[in-house]
Amino acid sequence: MKRRTFLQSLMVMGAASAARPSRAGDESDGDGNAILVDLTRCEGCRSCEAACAEANGLPEPDWEIDIDEMEPRPTTEKQWVTVSRFDTSRGDVYVRRQCMHCLQPACAAGCLTKALVRKPEGAVVWRGDKCMGCRYCMISCPFDVPKFEYDSANPRIQKCRMCWERVEAGELPACVDECPGDALSFGPRAEMIELARKRIYENPGKYVSEIYGEHEVGGTGWLYISPVPFAELGFPTNLGETPVPEYTRDFLTAVPVILAIWPALLLGIRRATHPEDSEADVAVDEH
Predict the structure, then answer these.
(1) Phi, psi of 186 (to 5 degrees)
(2) Are 117 and 27 in contact (CB under 8 A)?
(3) pLDDT at res. 20
(4) Helix or strand or coil: residue 220?
(5) Residues near 257 by Cβ (< 8 Å), separated by ≥ 6?
């Protein structure tokens, strides 16, 4: 291939890549469903842990240690949901942790093979047949959720899937279905935000005037209302409202253009400073 033809091909590929709009890892432009967690209603019974384990074939939670004696626990590859007790300015508050199911998930944006995608129902799910094991999703997640099975011969990325198969079949997520204290509510995200605002408005002094997850990193599929500031409960409160993929989208869009222009620019500089090379190229093309 002649140098001129090669450069033209680069420019065409670069322009096509730059013109292709995308929302990394997202199969839906809508907000989908969400789950509202009312922390004033959580009793720390851990039934959501058991329901999650049963529905997803995970090991049964460790019941030997009393939750009031446990340190706050992160999720693991064997436990997608954890409930922990926090000693706050208003007494004990029980908090459950799981994947936040971001509207614009950083894990999906960082996935090179689209093994992580956001489903139309709102769940962010991992697809094993597409995963290459790079673990960029673990680095990308602002909530430190995806976990890798380091001890497995066939390792997987493990995290809450918001029971999207059950939701597709018209059922509730397992944890919502089993919560005895009505601490979990499931439905379209807009309705869950409205429900949260209604409870805050109708119960002055009971809740802080904030819905965690409404705006954090562009919004999440899990929403929380709380009797105390979220910083007291170990929530990251400095994430901002900009979706994580937005920080790199402009740069990544520009990369194909740069790759297309840069060789041509270098060639132009070369020919301007070495005119004898240009004459040689013309002679070769004529033959």
Answers:
(1) -125, 140
(2) yes
(3) 39
(4) strand
(5) 14, 15, 18
| Identity at 234, one-letter amino acid code | G
Q: Which of 18-32, 75-89, 101-115, 208-222 has the lowest mean pLDDT?
A: 18-32
Residue that has been written with the tokens 């018209």 in this structure:
170
Q: What is the pLDDT of residue 254?
A: 47
User: Is this structure's pTM higher than 0.90?
Assistant: no
What residue ranges define each of the domains in the chain, with the CATH number in brackets?
3-22+246-286 (no CATH), 33-233 (3.30.70.20)
Spatial distance between the Cα atoms of 121 and 25, rounded to a whole number of angstroms: 14
- Residue 212, classed as helix, strand or coil, is strand
> How far is the C-alpha of 85 from the C-alpha of 106, rounded, in Å?
28
3-state DSSP assignment of residue 165: helix
- Is pLDDT above 90 for 146? yes
**Torsion sign, CA atoms 224, 22, 133, 56:** positive
Which residues, at least 6 apart from 280, have a Cβ–Cβ distance to it below 8 Å? none
C-alpha distance from residue 40 to each of 70, 71, 195, 208 (Å): 20, 20, 14, 11
Query: CA 156, 72, 199 angle in degrees (round to 5)?
Result: 100
Structure tokens at 133: 């094991």
The DSSP bridge partners found for residue 158 are 147
Model confidence at 13: pLDDT above 80: no
Q: How far apart are CA 141 and CA 8, in angstroms?
A: 39
